[in-house]
Model the fold of this input.
Amino acid sequence: MLIIASSNGAIGMDQAIRALKNGCSALDAVEIGIRLVEANPKEHSVGYNGYPNILGHLELDASIMDGRTLDSGAVALLRGYPYAISVARQVMERELPHVLLAGEGAERFAREIKAEQWDAMLTAETVDVWREGLKAVGTTQWVDRQSDIIPEITDETPLLDLVTLATDPERVEGTVNFIAIDGNGDIASGVSTSGWAWKYPGRIGDSPIIGAGNFADNRYGACACTGMGEMAIRAGTARSLVLYLKTGMPLREAARQAMMDLRDLGGEFIGGMNLIALDRNGEHVGMSSRAGAGYIYQTADMNSYEECEREVVRIPGRWGGVARD
Ligand code: ASP
Done:
């Protein structure tokens, strides 16, 4: 029994490993661990109180995958429901032939299955951070509504410049990854995020895209990503890593190859990327494009989780075609 997670999963690790020890499935453990991160108001990149999109709306993305069958469930652009991972799991488990529901349809589904809904998804402090973020890039006009100074953004306001100026991938990224192997040797993986802060409305990242930010297959292993989702979508990162395992590559080499595929991407917008992965024998690894990043793991016989360093595969950044780093 083993769980690996991104470092921000620490808050959920204890309950997740306890669930495994009590005989729960890898899917249960992944969902339990991620829900605790989604409910954590201090975590601004996942679930409740994540940073919103450019219009100030919180839109959540999540996915979960069952390595036994490759069954998957995902939601994108989900508003008003903090536990996106649980809604994603229900997409997988209900009598529904779909894998991914987005926007109004995802909300309708969440309502229909009576998922837990919260009226307020952002604290006043987080709304302030959003407002200040927009001010910092000198947005449009500001209006005073009941002494609440908010940016004047209408349906006609051009958002393209605002998004590229306000979105700073070095500052506002984050997602939670959990991958578990249970007592039966079954593997499951889950990913949940509020996506990039200040993203363009309707933007969907890699987290709910099976094969991009999340992939699990009992026969080989599993991988989950955090970082600039657009890159993982383009390179099919999580699926690539598992496919590299299928060719017989050792785990660490498979992970390096998946990172190098990202490094070789062309285009004008290239940011940071991180992944965690394990193989069916319980070997695990973390990779990052930046030095100093870690991930956590815990087995059934450990009293608490331990942190491991991620290996660095440098990916030179570009923003609007201009080199950064
Ligand atoms: N991967 C997430 C996304 O692109 C964000 C992140 O991990 O920073 O939505």
In short: The first helix runs from residue 10 to 21.
